[in-house]
Amino acid sequence: MDNTACQKSSIAGASFSIHPMSDDFVTIILRALEEVDTSKVWLQTDDVTTTVRGKLIHVFDVTKALFLHAAQSGKHVSFQATYSFGCPGDSEGDVFLVEDDIPANESSIKEMEQHAAAKFSLYPLGGGNYMDIIYEQIEAMKRRVDVSPAHYSTRLTGDTHALFFGLQDVFQSTIHGGSAHTVMTVSISANSPSHTGGQENAR
Questions:
Q1: Which of the residues 17, 144, 153, 184 could staple to 119 if both were Cys, CB 3.0 to 4.6 A apart?
Q2: 114-150 pLDDT, tens per residue?
């Protein structure tokens, strides 16, 4: 497959795991899955991770909603995800690409307040003019959340909605910069006893 064909793909995907630090972790995860509208993405769960595929806007909508619903339990929740777009990704003809661009969960989760901390690393593959774009987007994130450097990653601290909007923006802008295959790894933590600054979970 040549680079031109890769760039035409519109499939985005994420493979992720949610880990509630609680004895009733199964209930928390299942309840989150029940509360979230996944009708606009392909979804499959196995014994290691859950994978969602479809339009980028819906992949981020579903993963944010699942994290928020799990975190609303008040338990310490850890979320790890790998987002991917493009070559050597999925089929260009996937049925979920016909969906509209209206996030299915935004109206039901927009009032949820949840402080979180995150680290992300971005890997643009297959060329493209992306480094200036990444730096610009990280600067833009500073208007929404606290941003600081970390080993092999960038750390973000703030409201969960702002975190996910920032992550989606930097990911999408890197794609638009010409990266034929873009990968981003993300770790997010909510309700951790080690969070600093006296942030409280608001529900």
A1: 153
A2: 999 999 999 888 777 777 878 888 898 998 899 999 9
Hunting for tokens 């409280």 — which residue is that?
200
- Decide if 191 contacts 184 (C-beta within 8 A): no
What SS3 string covers 123-160? EEECCCCCHHHHHHHHHHHCCCCEEEEECCEEEEEEEH
Residues 6+ apart with CB under 8 A from 128: 174, 177, 178, 179, 180
Q: Angle at the Cα of 79 (from 78 to 81), degrees rounded to 5?
A: 155
| Residues 34-62: tens digit of each pLDDT | 999 999 999 998 888 999 999 999 999 99
Q: Quick one: which of 12, 32, 31, 52 has its CA closest to 175?
A: 12
* Lowest-pLDDT choice from 19-33, 97-111, 189-203: 189-203
- Span 8-97+114-190 CATH architecture: 2-Layer Sandwich (3.30)
Residues 153-174 have pLDDT tens digits of: 999 999 999 999 999 999 998 8
Task: Extract the tokens encoding 36.
Answer: 């979230």
Q: Are strands 12-20 and 77-86 parallel, antiparallel or unpaired?
A: antiparallel
Q: In what order do the strands lie in the sheet with 77-86?
A: 42-45, 50-54, 12-20, 77-86, 181-190, 115-125, 153-159, 146-150
Is the whole-model pTM more than 0.85? yes
